[in-house]
Amino acid sequence: MVLETHELRIPKKISTIGIVTALSLSLLLIHIAFDNFPKSFAITTTNTSQTPAATARPPPPQLGASPELSATQISASTNKTCTLTPSSAKLMGTPQQTEGPYFVDGMPNRSDIRSDPSDGSVQQGIPLRLAFHVYSEDNGSCIPLNEARVDIWHANPQGIYSGVKDFGTIGKKFLRGYQVTDHKGTAQFTTIYPGWYQGRTTHIHVKIRTLEGSNKTLEWTAQFYFDNSVNKQVNAQPPYNKHGPPTTTNEQDGIYTGASTDGLLKSNTGQHLMLNLTKDMQSYLGTFNIVLNSAHSAR
Fold first, then answer.
1. Which residues contact 278 (CB under 8 A, 6 or more apart)?
2. Per-residue pLDDT tens listing for the chain (299 residues)
3. Residue 113: which CATH number?
4. Is residue 132 part of a domain?
């Protein structure tokens, strides 16, 4: 018996439709994949390389660059300790800090710096008496440095400095002045508890210089600080409370926590520049023993 085989024949029209459909489906899948790939990649890149504007931290206040110290300024520092007689107390060399942008030379020689010579007005605030005892380290002994010029300057209760264009106080001299150390190396001032300003903790600037004729033989500069709790208490009282509580503590202040300008300390210089503060009725007394290096000590 002969079996007949029959070939299955697909109509040409149906075959063409199938091929076209398959090609269309392939092109559609390729388009979807290609379209989704860059979108996914862009999302990943954005999330890893950009910071939302809402969480960006504002830049710190610009207080001016700290210039490099001269040889005279660097040589004024010492990392040695000295013995104070007759108490036998051991004192360490005092580190330097930047003078900041608001130093004005040529201020009056006076111990009470609360008034302004231009109009006789007096800055109101909590009275503060200051006594700086300046010594030079000499072979392990603390020798009083006499006839040294000690300048101080600081902000008023509203955070304003005199003699500064930015504050509109050019020609004013309140809360500025200098004294010359006596034979005990002491310079004393009467002022008010300083105010604060944006980006800085409460502080007082001090600059010490010695001269031979018109030649400067020594220059030493630093800033002195107060306890955070006292700053808070003072600024809750008038006239300080008009300015509000301080927005920056010692530990949040970049100069307080930073390195000394003379290279003696790498960080937290302000911890070595805290005033010894005592309260006397409605006023304060701040003292500090400053130890530096000078070849012109009184003997």
1. 284, 285
2. 444 444 445 455 445 555 445 555 554 444 444 344 333 333 333 333 333 333 233 333 444 434 578 887 888 999 999 999 888 899 999 999 999 999 999 999 999 999 999 999 999 999 999 999 999 999 999 999 999 999 999 999 999 999 999 999 999 999 999 999 999 999 999 999 999 999 999 999 999 999 888 788 999 999 999 999 999 999 999 999 999 999 999 999 999 999 999 999 999 999 999 999 999 889 999 999 999 998 643 43
3. 2.60.130.10
4. yes
Biggest alpha carbon distance in the chain?
Answer: 143
Q: Which domain holds residue 77?
A: 71-292
Angle at 221 between CA 164 and CA 261, to 5 degrees: 105
Quick one: 163 exposed, middle or buried, by C-beta within 10 A (0-12, 13-18, 19+)?
buried
Number of domains, the chain: 1
73: Cβ contacts below 8 Å, ≥ 6 apart: 96, 219, 220, 221, 261, 262
Alpha carbon distance 99, 241 (integer Å): 27
Judged on CB neighbours under 10 Å (0-12, 13-18, 19+), 18 is exposed
Helix, strand, or coil here: 153?
Answer: strand
Calpha distance 216→140 (Å, rounded): 25
Q: Cβ atoms within 10 A of the Cβ of 84, count?
A: 17
Query: Is residue 29, in this structure, part of any structural domain at all?
Result: no
pLDDT in tens, 226-285: 999 999 999 999 999 999 999 999 999 999 999 999 999 999 999 999 999 999 889 999
16 three-class SS: helix
Q: CA 195, 200, 202, 203 torsion: positive or negative?
A: negative
